[in-house]
Amino acid sequence: xxxxxxxxxxxxxxxxxxxxxxxxxxxxxGEVTALVGDNGAGKSTLVKCVGGIYPIDAGDYLFEGRPxxxxxxxxxxxxxxxxxxxxxxxCDNLDIVQNMFLGRERKSGLVLDEPTxxxxxxxxxxxxxxxxxxxxxxxxxxxxxxxxxxxAIAKAVLWNSKIVVLDEPTAALGVAQTAQVxxxxxxxxxxxxxxxxxxHNMNDVFAISDRIAALYLGRMAxxxxxxxxxxxxVVELITSGRSGELGLNNGSGVAS
Amino acid sequence: MISDSDPSLERQAPTAMxxxxxxxxxxxxxxxxLLRHVHLGGPTSRAELTTxxxxxxxxxxxxxxxxxxxxxxxxxxxxxxxxxxxxSLVVRPESAKVYVFAFDVGVDRVAAARVGLxxxxxxxxxxxxxxxxxxxxxxxxxxxxxxxxMHRKTRSDTVCVGAGAAFAGGVRNDGVIRFGPNMGAYDxxxxxxxxxxxxxxxxxxxxxxxxxxxxxxxxRGLGVGSRDLIYLHGDVGIGGGVIAGGHLLGGHEGYGGEVxxxxxxxxxxxxGCGSHGCLExxxxxxxxxxxxxxxxxxxxxxxxxxxxxxxxxGDIVAQEALSRVGDWLGLGVANLVNVFxxxxxxxxxxxxEVYLGAAAQVRSRIATEALAASRERLRLRTxxxxxxxxxxxxxxxxxxxxxxxxxxALARVxx
Lengths: 256, 415
Description:
The complex is a heterodimer of chains A (256) and B (415).
Chain A lengths: L4 E10 L2 E11 L4 E6 L5 H8 L7 E6 L2 E2 L5 H7 L1 E4 L11 H5 L6 E2 L2 E2 L1 H14 L17 H13 L5 E5 L7 H16 L3 E5 L3 H7 L2 E6 L2 E7 L5 H10 L1 E2 L2 E2 L9
Parallel strand pairs in A: 3-10, 3-11, 6-9, 9-10
Antiparallel strand pairs in A: 1-2, 1-4, 4-5, 7-8, 11-12, 13-14
Chain B lengths: L6 H10 L6 H19 L2 E2 H8 L3 H13 L3 E4 L13 E4 L4 E8 L3 E8 L3 E9 L7 H17 L6 E9 L2 E2 L5 E4 L4 E4 L1 H9 L5 E5 H12 L8 E6 L3 E7 L2 E2 L30 H5 L1 H7 L8 H13 L3 H25 L3 E6 L1 H19 L2 H4 L3 E4 L6 H16 L1 H9 L1
Parallel strand pairs in B: 4-7, 7-11, 12-15, 15-16
Antiparallel strand pairs in B: 1-3, 2-3, 4-5, 5-6, 8-9, 9-10, 12-13, 13-14
Helix pairs in contact in B: 2-4, 5-6, 7-14, 9-11, 10-11, 11-12, 14-15
């Protein structure tokens, strides 16, 4: 099966600074692909290119095998790509249902179709086996960090999405909530979605990923199957762009 | 090589040949199969049962009528199907009326539950067990009184069809606990004694907790549809349940799958079983707490969580302890992967915390020690049923004779 998302030869510069060099990246249905790299390696830029926030300078963007133009976030959403950023973009003064449908409310005639929205929210949360939330009419301000992350993820999968990108979903959480979120992320992929997980935590990456893509100074050092690599190899890829046979041709990242 | 004309074989052939199953056997089998469908899959329309079971509509109707008459299922009109035409009746299990008692005996926790057909936990009681010598009367007495409390609260139209118990130890096929080094239980007639104390005229089926949890994950958890699954249960020790080719590996007398006593480190830490370097000696609670310099303070799940939490907060000793334990766990899993080529390995009990907290070590070990062909499609997961996996497994064990022959099982309990 071809990957749902495939990027080839992506370049991206901001003025004179080239942030992404010839980057290739793919994400497959039913799999968690971890995107790792040091600070400034280009993870966020790559994700923003995927999400249509930054236009790419050069390269191919293929969705389900077809070349597509993704020039703005709306185009990405229409393809079924949802991104959950670290700040989660939830409104504290709204409840869970209102947040999940924010800006995309269901209407019945002139008024909001509350029963349908409630049912859809309920079904989505149940489909993810979320049991931590008491009521879907709870205000988001009353939720814990882990619950907020859960709501943000549920919001992303509500729209028949095919790819969900999660930017450091466990960064601000304690151990118990991290475990719940990791299990939830794994379940998303087991339900058939392609999940891209950005994380600095190697245990999180190894716990749930099927593939690991390591960026090094704006280049894709390697995209490997998690079952084939060790922790030490991944750390090497992150810090020096290569590890034994894997990785870039030389340490400086300049193609020879 | 056996020749075709071997006279001894020829003589045996007529007696070894068996007539096909009788109509009665087929009907019994179909009744059980239909009941199993709604027990595991929840309310299902007749039309769907027809497709799933590959039987014709009138057979499904007759089977459903028999099960309805026995009070095991009930049929009702579905809610709006949104489709044209007369809707197919939905067959649902009589969860509120037909139930079993499920018991779970772990090192630190005992639990009893009343579980309805269909797998709904209708009522439950949990109690903390204090570590110390195993007192059969105390444990059995506690569980039986929980069951009686729950039994008293039931309505008169309910029927209890069985009882099952999960035990953290090696259980012989007849329900005797042969060894439970972490419980201090040896040669205990647990099933018999619990049945006697219950006084409900039921036998109590007993199984090893990890074996039952493996069955639970396969029937209701994340192993649905998988024929090759290994469940690893972390309590104080490490238990294992191996499902190979769709069947639980029980061994000759029932002790199969004791992966906690697989030696991973010859001459290593002393194990409760008397050996050294067993997986459970290197990965179990005591090893983790000792390595983290916390042995003798807290015990149980909270103690394990405290180590994982400390490691997450940057405590180097805790990180080192977790990483050592993860390394041994990975080695153990790699051996199992090489021997059984499972599709899924499930981490339950305290191994959930250990796996999530040390996954980098666990998977690095698997990547280096397991055969590439065996590991490439391997899925590593934490338990979908969580801490209830063993209890759910005990309930499934109790239901198993009902699903094998529904009418006979029901006749036995109502007489």
